[in-house]
Amino acid sequence: MEAVRLRRVNRELAQGLSGKLTDLYVDSRKTSRPDAYCRPSRRHFLNRLTADIRRPGFAMVIAETDGLVGCAFGFPVRSDSFWSIGFDWALPRGIEQLAATGGVFAITAVLVPPHPQDAYVARRLQERLLADRQVSLGVTLVDRADHPTLTALRSWGWLDVGEFRQPASATLLRVLVLPVGEPTSLKPGGLAHDDWRQWPG
Fold it and tell me: Global pTM?
């Protein structure tokens, strides 16, 4: 595989790339395994991408060689807007404090087509996205049935902190968080394991 270059793109360029990004999403679903996790439809992804691009603070990083080979995107969430990514319960104390100061960033998608280096590219994308935003905590939601994604995220240091079911859906989602930089539990007012005891799941 050629050397991969990472590049931040603004909201306007992300909108212009929506067709290619949707193709990338479809490519990232391809697998030879008959029991592989079945991801939502092309239309569902495009609707979600369009909605996320409109959110305040939206950010995207793309990976390129001679063309688009990956992307990651998301937006910052504050304590009063966690509902926008599906949270509908009281936040653990440490997360609420970080969110109130803009220190929490939700990664809503990391897309990389199947390839021997796909895990490496995906990890670089999510690390660059969080580093560029200078946040203290990344958060993401993953379908409980999506075992490959859950396994990859856990191997990269994401902490699986609970499970919940969105009110309008029968899908069970795992909640994962990733402290960025210095271990968050060591920071004043930061996260500690006790913070997760009140988390559902």
Answer: 0.78
